[in-house]
Amino acid sequence: MDIGLTQLNVSDARSCLNAGTYGTMGVGLGNAIAAAIVHPDRPVIHLSGDSAIGFSGMEMETLVRYNLPVKIVVLNNGGIGPACRRSRQTR
What we know:
alpha+beta, two-stranded parallel sheet
């Protein structure tokens, strides 16, 4: 959600949920599920960085199980690469 807020201009009041100041990774898809249930008449788009989407496997299963029409956009902002490189260097 943190990266998503930098990529999307939202002008309608109360139409954007975000992870807050700390940009907690992995909470965005849960917010999208809630939005799709509460507002079935509105389109729901979930924006996620490439690292944060890895925390959302069970939420994706929930979307499919309940046939919720949420669009998921993954932004490859290179969030996984630096951590993988550091991990290989410490072995």
